[in-house]
Amino acid sequence: MKIAFVGKGGSGKTTLSSLFIRHLAAAGAPVVAIDADINQHLGAALGLDEAESAGLPAMGEHLPLIKDYLRGSNPRIASAEKMIKTTPPGEGSRLLRVREDNPVYDACARPVELDGGAVRLMVTGHFTDADLGVACYHSKTGAVELCLNHLVDGPDEYVVVDMTAGSDSFASGMFTRFDMTFLVAEPTRKGVSVYRQYKEYARDFGVTLKVVGNKVQGPDDLDFLREQAGDDLLVTVGHSDWVRAMEKGRPPRFDLLEEVNARALRALRTAADETYGSRDWRRYTRQMVEFHQRNARSWGNERTGTDLAAQVDPGFVLGEEVVAPA
Ligand SMILES: Nc1ncnc2c1ncn2[C@@H]1O[C@H](COP(=O)(O)OP(=O)(O)OP(=O)(O)O)[C@@H](O)[C@H]1O
Ligand SMILES: [Mg+2]
């Protein structure tokens, strides 16, 4: 299951993604956690100290390796240099699985021990000003998008991405790559306006979006979010002393998280799991091809000096039953 946490800066994306990741790990589920946020804090929220966080390999710096591996023997992709962030898999491409070892994880993922078991953590690396432009060739999130477009995940295995609600994800199509998108919103006008904007983009692409209220303090806050988000409001999370203790570098055992917040995390998992029945690999593949063609026309063809539309394998549909070449 591919799950994104998006929202306004400071809304609690990293906090809620990290709690959700801890919840999944405690239940014994395999998890790949990805930090694709502008502010790279997921490692710290999962308990890494500063030196450990700083020592994590950046996906953005391993793009050539990622491209070369995923390209495999796909005859439509001449070289890693001709591969852009939206280049879709086709016959001969290598696919990624949550539960496997592969050179991409070797280079970019590090295990993080949590109560219940280890998860794999991958980070895009720090963003520079150049990364924040639209459809940037060297976009840090491009590495994440490539991985998501080559990932064949089944139920009960999870990829959780901590992400912004920014223009980069809309330009590239990244926001369409998830079974479930949790939009974290504080009960404020600004928090809700990001929800509206996201919903607008999501509408035409069949994106499943649920609002998770955060820092919700009383009936007034709850009423406000209900009124603004309607049926999209899934659950709300209040102030957490467990989170505060964690922020002080003294994380209690995870089973000591407040029961009301633990219940909210179970609701997130249930809602995410329920989307599996309506997953549509054909649509998933079609959308990645559409965004690839859009990127090809707007900048990719010119940048690579190639007709990138020819990279599309018309007969290929990504799916769990696809058998990847060795
Ligand atoms: N439910 C909560 N209880 C207590 N503290 C919280 C809660 N949610 C968020 N916080 C605190 O609020 C601050 C911002 O949260 P967080 O870093 O998760 O937001 P973010 O959306 O990831 O921000 P950014 O856009 O900077 O990445 C953090 O210090 C975090 O510990
Ligand atoms: Mg964050």
UniProtKB/TrEMBL annotation:
Keyword Nucleotide-binding: yes
Protein keywords: ATP-binding, Nucleotide-binding
GO molecular function: ATP binding
The CobQ/CobB/MinD/ParA nucleotide binding domain, residue ranges: 7-219
Domain of life of the source: Bacteria
Record Gene3D superfamilies: P-loop containing nucleotide triphosphate hydrolases
Protein name, per record: ATP-binding protein
